[in-house]
């Protein structure tokens, strides 16, 4: 074990990466959202930078691993593959398919978590708590050694759950998802309003209500590829800003930054440094922070596409088949949430190859869900640009929306379309709906295929 042993009156909390933690108490060790990859989720590069000693990770033994939800930056089969197959895994997920995938990987104890039903592991009592999006997320309340820790993961908290959590107090430590991400705004940067750094208005009142002794800025800890414009636009909140705002609002609370590998020992009166995780290896400067510069320098998709490798002939054929055959048939299965597409619209899909050259399709989208390739002209009502390599990755590797560099409506339409677009939802984009609206676990399924094929 890399963490120093703890007595029954203290709890050691060690950071892995993003929402990953190891908790140790009285000789027992549990872990949360175990991601041992850099980058993870394709293009999430650890920030600060680390590497993982995979051989050392394979030697680790955990009494249990808890996974908060199915998103690939929290549940990755390639990371789970490093763990002993006898490790009990507890997963909050409403879809049986993910449990089946994990069992196919060889794990012998994979159990579903139920909200508000505690799980006892040695000195630990871990209770999943309801997040605002209960179909997806959960949070964890961890009790051990007389201490009470709330791991919010990257969830949002509604008023009902907040009242419940206040009743569960007092709280010794809260792991709070400090970094908001402009995931929707970067899809349509030319249409996103400027947004100076600010904490969501709910956060400080919620933290005041919880009144923890210590707050750890949690989740995030990643940036995109070094060349990516997202690194200047995606992350509006810095560690320094979060610390300043929370300290001013909660003068009795200490904000404690835990970088990957860093560990602390919590007891009833203090928080002290502990032995770092030796299988999470810091690389380069660790005292780094985020800087947001807005959307002014968003490069065109033609330039972004040149950072990706050329598709093979077979891969290109797969993409073309999807655009010409599958996509028109799929469109009617996934209705839009807003009413923009209640009128006929001409949609242009542009795919950019590794040289930045575009191939374009135009579709006539009818209110009844019919989509046909449009050979003629007609006024455009929606546009979607994407690197061809990323569309292939979404189709075959389960790549998610946040790493695809999709660009939506990056043009000026006629006056009527512009007025209607003001009420449209960006995620009503036809390609987003066709790729993601009725799929589950595509990323993990692609991982499983690769792992089983070894």
Automatic annotation (TrEMBL):
InterPro entries, sorted: RibonucZ/Hydroxyglut_hydro
Q: What is this protein called?
A: MBL fold metallo-hydrolase
Task: Please name the source species.
Answer: Pseudoduganella plicata
